[in-house]
Known about the structure:
This protein is α+β, with helices and mostly antiparallel strands. It contains three helices and five strands, in the order αβββαβαβ. 28% of the residues lie in helices and 30% in strands. Strands 3-2-1-5-4 form a five-stranded antiparallel β-sheet, with helices on both faces.
Amino acid sequence: xxxxxxxxxxxxxxxxxxxxxxxxxxxIATVIETWGSAPRPVGSHLVIDRSGNFEGSVSxxxxxxxxxxxxxxxxxxxEPRMLEFGVADETAWQVGLSCGGRIRVYVERxx
Length: 111
C-alpha cells in the first residue's frame, strides 16, 4: 500500500520561476563545491527575492543568512558573486558547517 503525503515538497527552481512570473526580482545561490563535511551537497539551491523571501537551502546557520544578504546585493547590482565559507573545527557548529567543512556558493541574478 502506498501512502500519499499532503505535504508539498517545494523545488527552489520552480519557486524561482513562479516568483519571476509574478514580476519579482530573484537571485539564485548554488553550492558549486564542498570540502570536508558540508550540510548540503553540490547542486543545492537557495532562491531569494528582493524582499528577502527565500526558499531552499545551501547550508544552514549563519552561512545561509550571509548568502541571503549577499544575494540582495546581487539583485541590486546584477553582478554575480562567488562566496566561500569555511571555519575552524571549534566554531564550525556555531555557523552551520559541521566538522570544519567549507563550501563555495555562486550567487547570480535571474532574468
